[in-house]
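Lab notebook page, bench 4
Experiment: in silico fold of construct C2
Operator: M.H.
Input chain length: 250 residues
Purpose: comparison with the prior construct
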Amino acid sequence: MIFPYPHSAALAQVPVPYFYKDAVLLIYPLRLRDVLDMDMWLKSRVVKEYHDQVELLPPGEREEFVAGLSDIIAGINGSSGRGYRLLWSNADALLHLAVLLTRGVVEEDRLRELIFPNGLTEESVDVVTEMKRSVWRDLPPVPELKVVEKKPRYETTKEESEARIYHMLAEKYHWTYDQILDLTDYQAFWFGYMFPEEREHYEDIDAMIHQSKASLEARGAEASPSPKPGVIHFNSPEEYEAWKARQTSQ
């Protein structure tokens, strides 16, 4: 039996005792580095499965096959699609997940003997599922800002999306990649969370910007007047935050 993982425990990565047979295992929530480790394990497993087949293909077909396989492997992860199906239908994959959930404290051979004595079974899948659920907490919805939506000037690339969490936390807290990788998704969400006073701050800035624009349009101004000496004008909350960050770093 497991109980809901508390918010306070999730914020601190507190381990949960998991009782199974004659063992008591300490289960930890997966960190960002653990999720990436699991994804890389799954990618490597697919490469291993197809390696011999690639060698049997004639040179012309081999390059084409490898190019198509590379696209498939790039999209493999443990949370969806082919990677998800492989994870939950393979004893070795689930064993690796169990090792990650115990942070490597329990030896792999011990976990294999304990959970997978008969290979992949319905019981072994249920056990690893329970282990994962015992330290899992869903992310709450992201708060909505009551600001005028602006169509982004640039489309975000996949690489930029993957780097965003590192950039945001490094900029906000001056953390290194290693420090960020030791966070869980849940912790990363709350470290980047915008609390009510912060949302109010952004909304006030946005309201002032649009109120000023509306006032200019009402006067029939074709362009913004030249700023007065000593007065700084911001066109968006982002511009204000960027200016504030530069002042802090000077």
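Observations: The chain is about 60% helix and 5% strand. The two ends are 54 Å apart (CA to CA).
Next step: discuss at group meeting.
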